[in-house]
Write a structure and sequence with these properties.
Largest interface: A-B, 166 and 170 residues
Shape of chain B: elongated
Radius of gyration of chain B: 35 Å
Largest sheet of chain A: 6 strands, mixed
Helix content of chain B: 55-70%
Largest sheet of chain B: 6 strands, mixed
Number of helices of chain A: 21
Radius of gyration of chain A: 36 Å
Order of helices and strands of chain B: HHHHHHHHHHHEEEHEEHEHHHHEHEEEHH
Structural class of chain B: alpha/beta
Mean pLDDT of chain B: 86
Strand order of the largest sheet of chain A: 6-7-8-3-9-10
Oligomer: heterodimer
Distance between the termini of chain B: 69 Å
Helix content of chain A: 55-70%
Number of helices of chain B: 20
Strand order of the largest sheet of chain B: 6-7-8-3-9-10
Distance between the termini of chain A: 79 Å
Low-confidence stretches of chain B: 598-607
Chain lengths: 627, 607
């Protein structure tokens, strides 16, 4: 009926999704499959034995056997149930649950950590961003990895159930074959036919429905409205959950509520009316449920009817009716369950495919292995040679044919207008990105040839959009669980935070912010910036790169940092980016960037002499207000 | 978290609240729920009596009569099971839709409340938890508050049906079963108690793990994590958290096994009794062998309903806490938009007065008995070190915050008596961290729907802010979406362009009072200087306030206020304050000496 909405996903694709997911989890912990399978086997044996013994007891009751004889199967049944249940419980609570929770934690944790372990250029790439969106959407409903476990368990249960029930039903088959009666044969044929017809219909309905769900995730309907709505509501939500409430003040002041309403609730309600899949989903889900219900109850009834029929014509004793009825419906039910859980597993695997894709992303940057020579004298020379760079997914060069040599142990300032390529240069220098053209050399060797974890040790950077973690202050400064407390306190002092540090009840062990600990301290933007500077100093790297480190500081704090800057940096090489040109006065070497190129270089005095130069223009724009 | 701030509503009132919400949005859900209750409570009953009927039919050996009975008993079973499954699915999908609606409403609600609720205070925690309760996937509170009571009711109905069956055989059986079930309840209670004891530890552990995962996935963290090789640190932290968690779970699991064991013993005793009693009843001829199964099923099934009732009730109690957060959030007082509007409030240019104003964030005092008078049309520069209270002053003035004591007057009208909307409308403010919304350009300027945005005014504002040309060159119209959140080809602006855009937004609004809070911190010198010039232009004829760390901005102000610890310690014109030689002069000297000394140095060099 809704064929236009249900594009087929091939069986092979489903199978490969399932295989990928199962094998990834298998690698984390294979026992998260084996142990539950064992538990399910125990449970199935338990119910099969119960079925057989109950039939025996019933038969004895019909025959009016003495109580002593009946007692034997009863006691056996009670004891067996107790023991098997207990074994299953121990398995479940002691082994299965902890293992599975751990698997989920590792799986989620790996996904999160993957993000910080892949190349930075990938993190920033449109591909990874899209993938991240997809993951978010795929996990918006359903229960994630739990679904895999549930589906897996259900399929294993189906298989165990099928074979156990088959064993129980075997005598019935023998009786039928031995009877040599056409009536009995007809009964058997009818049974198989019924089973086929019922399950086929239900499976069809379910297949159509699952297909619909799968398609939701394939984004077969890139309706603008849906896209608008879903992404917008998530924007707000992630903001609110992230504690970024600040935007709400604009909504207050600018009377933006009606606009917000349009893009949240109103769209949602509109969407229901307009979207074909919303209606189709409701209808299909109902139809599927209906067929599943009819089939399920017919299966139970059929089991009873058939075995009752055979019992009536005297094929076996009355008590066994219950046994055969149970096993016949179990056989049918388990087949149906395997089928439907395979579908549900396909959906689960489809939804996890995005996560697995992320987990399997390979780094694309060349990974050098050369160790970086340790030099106490910090004699490291950096040279940019004809470097050009373009951000992935954008047009136009961020840096164009840049050639630049850093002088060892000197302070260099980079100035230029917004978007002139200053920060990009820092990113290339730290090898967060590789340039498309040209090369960057460290003591004459292309930096790509060095092992990245050693190379990065050369740099301390305070980025414009630096971040601190909601972990202890000391650890934030040290970027490690092991903190040299004297050094941490000293660097915080240099950054001008001694007074604040003294006020903190737990000193360096005080948690920043309140994400993890209620007794964490809230810090202002200025304080955060000072901590970030302390962090850079603590690292004690031969290169110090500061990208607008004082943008949110007041003039007094700014001055403190400036005036202490020379002492802080010592004999290291420093690069300094700032829009406050007064800061350039610390540096005897100023590089002026314009539209991705180096246009001027020299001392403040030299540059100012060129009245047509960019530097003159920048300087005067600011200095005019101070004269 | 402190106990006394937890919002609390009774379970019953929360159940009503969520159901009313659901049925108001989707009346069909009422019908679905009713069907589910009827079918779900009837089905186990049909399943219970079915084997007895069939066995009896076989015993009696009457094929046609037997078939009739099966049809009579089988049809309702088929019907109830089919309807049950059908409506389970339908309910799930409509409740899913309901969840997004309720989430959207919660977000909107957050925007209607007093602004202080989103920035500080206990209300902030309430709102955050309310959002979280709605985003927990299939465990979201809307499913829980609709599903749990329904399942509870079904269990109660089944309990009554089974009791009736058993009491036909022997009323004492029911009493005995209730006693056994209560024992079972006691065991569960014990288990709950143990779990509750660990609840806080689990919550803390969740908080840590969630934070770490969030941090790992935060793209803004990426650079710092790589530069400072934080991966080891974070992985170590993660390892510690996981270890702690595993230990915690182990503690919990052992206790679960113990209670499982007790429960198994209990059901062993119960089943033993059931067999003994029923078999002897059959042997004594009080009971037919066929009904043996029915009664056995009734006895063993009975306790599952009692257990179900107890379990569901305790889940409901636990979920009720989350539900209360959602409701408390939805019932936060909204901003007051009623009140008289005296016409003099609109008089241009406006006059502002702070009279004896005190304000604090919780325990942290910011202003105490603060007084300030700003003359009509005056241009005031507000200065001070970080944390001196500059932004707080702006937020108090425009009504985002309300003073604890004292009053603020605009043109002599007490602003606390004004409707909030009227007060907000008086201001055009550019804050330090204003947001560009993922909406069309026009909506971003006007904060209104595109159809309600005045096109001419929008372009004029963009032109005055110096952005029209840039946008026209890019081929951008008012209907172009901004940011890449919704559309890949959305318009993104650079830092400087964003500042200009925010200025255009303030211009479009055309409020009587203009306030700029650090509008130039992210700008390069040329853009900064241009913004200053724009400022001089647009502040003509308006009372205006300019906050900046760049003291150059004071040059074109009529009066400078120097704030420290919530007090104005110096005020006057630039020249007056320099002559005074106080804090302002010091600050100015620090910032300007590199600029001013330069020419001297240069001159001396050249000379």
């Amino acid at each position: 009926m809704h064929d236009d909405l249900t594009t087929k996903i091939s069986f092979r694709e489903n199978l490969s999704n399932i295989k990928n997911l199962i094998s990834y989890i298998y690698k984390i912990d294979k026992y998260s499959y084996f142990l539950p399978a064992l538990r399910i086997l125990l449970n199935t044996i338990n119910s099969a034995v119960s079925l057989v013994l109950t039939a025996d007891i019933l038969e004895m009751l019909y025959q009016g056997s003495p109580i002593k004889e009946i007692a034997r199967p009863v006691i056996l049944l009670l004891a067996l149930t107790f023991l098997l249940n207990m074994a299953a419980s121990v398995l479940q609570e002691e082994f299965i649950n902890p293992r599975r929770t751990n698997v989920k934690r590792i799986y989620d944790g790996n996904l999160a950590a993957k993000f910080q372990q892949m190349d930075y250029s990938l993190v920033d790439s449109p591909y990874v961003k899209k993938l991240q969106e997809r993951i978010e959407k795929d996990n918006n409903w359903g229960s994630g990895l739990n679904n895999l476990f549930w589906d897996f368990d259900a399929i294993v249960k189906g298989i165990c159930n099928f074979f156990c029930s088959l064993i129980i039903a075997l005598p019935l088959l023998k009786i039928i074959i031995a009877s040599q009666s056409w009536l009995m044969y007809l009964g058997l044929v009818l049974l198989i036919l019924l089973l086929y017809l019922l399950t086929r219909n239900a499976a069809k309905a379910e297949a159509a429905f699952t297909q619909l769900l799968l398609n939701d995730y394939l984004e077969q309907y890139p309706l603008e409205m849906q896209k608008e709505y879903t992404s917008l509501i998530w924007v707000w939500l992630s903001r609110c959950l992230g504690g970024e409430y600040e935007f709400i003040k604009d909504i207050h002041l600018y009377d933006g509520l009606d606009l917000m309403n349009k893009y949240t609730s109103e769209n949602r309600r509109e969407q229901e009316k307009v979207m074909p899949w919303a209606a189709a989903r409701g209808k299909l889900s109902g139809r599927q449920g209906l067929l599943e219900g009819v089939t399920g109850s017919f299966i139970i009834l059929a089991g009873y009817l058939i075995s009752a029929g055979y019992a009536l014509i005297g094929a076996f004793p009355i008590g066994s009716t219950i046994k055969f009825a149970g096993s016949i419906s179990n056989i049918m039910e388990s087949l149906q369950s395997i089928d439907s859980n395979y579908r549900s597993l396909s959906l689960t695997a489809r939804k996890q495919a995005s996560t697995l894709e992320m987990l399997n992303i390979c780094d694309e940057m060349y990974k050098g292995k050369l160790p970086v020579e340790k030099r106490m004298d910090h004699k490291y020379e950096i040279e940019f040679r004809n470097v050009s760079f373009q951000y992935p997914g954008t047009q136009g060069y961020a840096l164009k044919n840049l050639s630049l040599k850093l002088r060892i142990g000197e302070r260099m300032a980079i100035v230029g207008m917004n978007g002139s390529g200053k920060t990009t240069m820092i990113k290339l220098l730290c090898r967060l990105y590789d340039p498309q053209e040209g090369e960057i050399l460290l003591n004459g060797v292309d930096i790509r040839k060095f092992a990245q974890d050693e190379y990065i040790k050369l740099f301390s950077v305070v980025f414009q959009d630096f971040k601190l973690l909601s972990l202890p202050l000391g650890q934030n400064v040290a970027s490690s669980t092991e903190v040299d407390t004297t050094l941490a306190a000293e660097t915080l002092r240099q950054a001008g935070l001694t007074k604040r540090l003294q006020q903190l009840p737990k000193g360096l062990n005080t948690f920043l912010y309140q994400d993890i600990m209620d007794d964490g301290v809230e810090i202002s933007g200025g304080e955060a910036q000072k901590i970030a500077i302390a962090r850079a100093l603590y690292k004690d790297a031969p290169f110090v790169l500061l990208d607008e480190p004082t943008a949110s500081l007041d003039p007094l704090s700014e001055y403190e940092i400036y005036s202490g800057f020379d002492a802080m940096v010592g004999n290291k090489t420093a690069i300094y980016i700032s829009h406050r040109l007064s800061s350039c006065r610390f540096c005897n070497d100023i590089a002026v960037f314009h539209e991705g190129s180096l246009v001027q270089r020299g001392s403040h005095e030299e540059l100012l002499r060129d009245e047509k130069g960019k530097y003159y223009e920048l300087w005067n724009a600011q200095a005019q207000y101070y004269t | 978290m402190k106990e006394e701030h937890k919002p609390h509503y009774s379970i019953l009132s929360n159940i009503l609240y969520f159901h009313k919400y659901a049925y108001r949005e989707y009346p069909r859900l009422a019908f679905y729920h009713l069907t589910l209750i009827v079918c779900d409570s009837m089905l186990p009953f049909f399943m219970l009596i079915m084997p007895g009927i069939i066995l009896e039919m076989v015993v009696q050996g009457n094929l046609w009569k037997g078939l009739g009975i099966i049809a009579a008993a089988g049809l309702p079973m088929i019907l109830s099971r089919s309807l049950l499954l059908q409506f389970t699915w339908k309910t799930y999908f409509w409740e899913n839709t309901l969840r997004t609606v309720m989430l959207g409403d919660a977000i909107l609600k957050g925007m209607k409340c007093l602004y202080k609720y989103v920035e500080y205070g206990e209300e902030k925690k309430i709102s955050k938890r309310a959002y979280q309760s709605m985003t927990a996937g299939d465990a979201a509170i809307s499913y829980q508050m609709l599903g749990l009571p329904r399942r509870l009711l079904i269990n109660i109905i089944c309990f009554i049906l089974y009791s009736t069956v058993l009491s036909i055989l022997n009323p004492w059986l029911v009493a005995l079963m209730i006693v056994l079930s209560l024992l079972n309840y006691a065991i569960l209670k014990l288990r709950n108690k143990w779990e509750l004891a660990l609840k806080e530890e689990f919550a803390q552990s969740n908080r840590e793990i969630n934070y770490l995962n969030k941090t790992f996935q935060d793209p803004h963290m990426s650079k710092d994590i790589r530069i400072f090789s934080m991966n080891n640190w974070l992985m170590q932290f993660r390892h510690m958290m996981f270890q702690k968690r595993v230990k915690l779970e182990k503690k919990n699991n052992r206790k679960r096994i113990l209670t499982d064991f007790l429960q198994q013993i209990l059901s062993f005793l119960r089943n033993g009794f059931a067999y003994g009693y029923l078999i002897s009843a059959v042997l004594q001829g009080e009971l037919s062998a066929s009904s043996f199964l029915v009664y056995f099923g009734a006895i063993t099934g009975f306790s599952s309903f009692v257990t179900g009732i107890v379990n569901l009730y305790s889940s409901l109690k636990a979920q009720n806490i989350e539900a209360s957060y959602y409701r408390a959030h939805m019932e936060l007082p909204e901003i007051n938009n009623s009140g008289m509007v005296p016409q003099e409030v609109f008089r241009q240019p406006a006059e502002i007065e702070f009279r004896d104003v005190s304000f604090s964030y919780g325990n942290q005092k910011v202003y105490e008995h603060f007084n300030l008078f700003i003359h009509p049309g005056e241009k005031v520069a507000l200065l001070g070190v970080n944390g001196a209270g500059k932004t707080t002053l702006v937020k108090l003035l425009c009504g985002l915050y309300e003073p604890n004591e004292g009053k603020i007057f605009i043109n002599g009208v007490d602003t606390s008596t004004l409707p909030k909307r009227t007060l907000y409308d008086l201001f055009s403010i550019v804050f330090q961290e204003s947001t560009i919304l993922p909406y069309p350009v026009g909506c971003n300027l006007s904060f209104k729907r595109l159809s309600e945005t005045d096109e001419e005014r929008a372009w004029t504002a963009l032109r005055e802010a110096g952005l029209e040309k840039t946008l026209r060159e890019k081929g951008v119209g008012l209907d172009t979406f901004m940011t890449k959140a919704a559309f890949d080809d959305g318009l993104t602006l650079s830092g400087g362009q964003t500042q200009r855009f925010l200025l255009a937004r303030a211009l479009y609004k055309n409020g009587n009072i203009l306030i700029l809070d650090e509008p130039t911190s992210a700008l390069d010198p040329i853009a900064e200087s241009e913004i200053y010039e724009e400022y001089v232009n647009i502040s003509k004829g308006r009372t205006s306030l300019f906050i900046s760390h760049r003291l150059a901005s004071t040059k074109f102000s009529d009066r400078i206020l120097y704030l420290e610890n919530g007090k104005i310690i110096e005020e006057g014109t630039h020249e007056e304050l320099i002559a005074l030689g106080g804090s302002y002069a010091h600050m100015y000297k620090i910032q300007s000496h590199y600029y001013t000394e330069t020419p001297c140095n240069l001159n001396s060099l050249e000379a």
